[in-house]
Amino acid sequence: MRTWFEPHEAEEFEAAKDLLVRRCLVWAAERGMAAEPPVLEAALDFRHRSVDGRLAYWDEAQVRRFLLEWIPRHATARRKLPGTALNAAPNAVPGTAPDSLLTLLRYIAAKGLRDPRGATLAELEQAVKDAAASAPAEPDRVAEARFARPHLDGQRAFPQPPLALPPARELAEAAARSDVVRWLAALADWVGAEGKPLTEAGHLRPADARQLAELLGTGERNPEARSAADLPDAGLLLAWAKHARIVRASKGRLLRVAKAAPLLHDPEKLWSRAFEAYFELGRDIPASSSLLWSVFDELMPDVLYSMYGMASPMPAARLEETVWLVYQDYVPSGRVPEETWRDRLARELTRAFEVLAELGAVELSHGVADALYSGDLAGELPDDDLTAGATPALPAEARARLLRRLAEPGLLVRLTPLGARAARERMLAEGRDAPLIGELADASAAELLGVLVEHYPTDAAARELDGWLVAHGGDPGPLLDAVRACSFRTRAAAMLSLLTRIRPGLRVMLPGLRTDPVLGPIVLMELADGGDPGHDHLGADENLLVTTEGVLGLLELAGPEKVLEQLRAMAGPSALALVEAMAASGHPAQESMEELRRLVLDAMRARSHPLRFVPGPRPGARGRTGGRRRRR
Asked: Where is this region: Disordered (predicted)?
């Protein structure tokens, strides 16, 4: 059972949602907890339609957004009948919603489904309580959000690969070596406690501008400079310092910002402040009017995200072509050839990279790009063949042009560890999934395996698992126990399969686990799928367990109707007898077996025994079989 689906996997998501809701309802009823199906469904829809799509990842902000925005809007939009769970007045949180959400969050945690990178259960419980308490005080904000943000669904972002970062000490040292960090600190010292006078236009006086350029070592020596505007590099750093809130202009003077004083003694925090301020420099980086500045703050993060996690430097030419797809709509029509506009955009993008290199967020080099970046350019590629969040497909002419450019040496760009960390922090703030090797060390075994199965490629999963084992004494026992405890058959099978792929020692143990009272059926399935010797010599009982395991998995993935359809196709008139044999097979998955009996076996029995009437006349027959005749 998965907790993450691509946007186009609508049927798979709906099946998983039905499974989670029906099992959560049973679990809640056994414990006397509130659980309204429409609220549970809405919560899962809310997470599926989000930027990251992780059903089991929740934090305080998402709790508030769901209860204070999603539920009120959808409650009124769906026009529920009186008495239903989502029926609510405008700007109100339905009374059952907080308790039902809390039940879902508790169920997810109890079943080992929680994504440990989100908030803890205790934090989520408090968030639900706080959101419910603050609802009456926030109707205006919710009403405003209804009009200001008409679509609460998030555009699904492309999942990022797990990233490994150097130790924190190395990152701090790299920040201290940044040219921009040193320049910003030097500029703040130069401004001093008294500040510097500004001209009526708000610029530094010429002498001060030249002094600043010399202090910063920009190499600009223009004796005719009338202000920092005539010294572009010094002017850029001055603008950067203003955007970073290190200095400010007030009453005709350039002053230090008092609250920024601690940053000047903390290179790492100053670096982070400068990185965020970089995206506000669209008007300041170029020396003349720019194509980039209008959407610089939106475009450049996406450019950095394109480089994130790449094993080799990315060719700037590849980035230029994708950026051109955005900017060609902004280019004014006229007699200037398109090639001229593309060249100008390329120069501006190169300058933007050079500024990032001075900060220490990227590394620039020159050479032939890795074949990775040209492998998808040959042949015919349909323009609509896109993965959610992926780079737009390039037109055939652009692909041909790019193939020629990539065959020759050119500018290459890659994120530094500092740049990668900063890009990851931005993505996390946007609600995106950006795994970090080592962040699951404190997770439970079930939560660890769930995240690895759904979000990590095999090599990264092996590294993360190795780190987890080191943090937990090296004992793999809890991992197998987590598989045993998993009540979702497809999830348990995926966990076991992952473990046997990345821990060969566990694969060797599988034959000895065939008779394990809990793991036995999925071990038999894993042995069969892996082609292990002896898997084709199963006894009758083992064959029945394997068949039952397959049906239970189908029930989770596709629902009872699909199971009934498949059983009839597979066994024909013997389908009922087969399911009855499965029900008596002794399969250890009690929760799944109860669903098999209730949703499949009972339905088959009901359909195989049509309704019979008690002895007597058929409905509508004239006359009576006994007693007095009716008088005519």
From this structure: 610-632
